[in-house]
Amino acid sequence: MRVVSAVVATGAVAVAVAVSADEPPPACAAATHRQFDFWIGDWKVYDPSGKVLGENRIESFAGGCALLEHWTGASGFTGKSFNIYDRNDGKWHQSWVDSVGGRLELVGGLANDRMILAGETRDRAKPDVIVTQRITWSVNDDRSVRQVWESSEDGGKTWTVAFDGKYVRK
Question: Who is most buried in 42, 71, 86, 107, counting CB within 10 A?
């Protein structure tokens, strides 16, 4: 390791600072990599009427470069997602897989204090129909998180709510 020394003048005081030329800052330390950190935690999830939908644990991993979701629904349905900010395209990406063989790929980012990710799927019952999936996460005043998953079969002209959950920290 090579150490580079510098003298920094602050007002009338000079301070010696040792900086390592061999140790770059953490790869995912930029603010863009922290945009989805509000979702990190252990959560109980409720529908708008207060019924428990399930539990979710979101954890940071890979040196803070990614989030891993562990969903367990009240009915026993489970799923996991891998979420990462891609500095190459400047977007957030989510890959979801679940216990019934479902898979979903979403892309998007932070807009108006909401994380919005979207992608397209095909309906097994209607293979010629492309379904747009859009999931929005927003932080409530009480620090809970609302996740709304919507689907559109007409290119976004109309939307149907597939999931509306309020995440409350355990």
Answer: 71
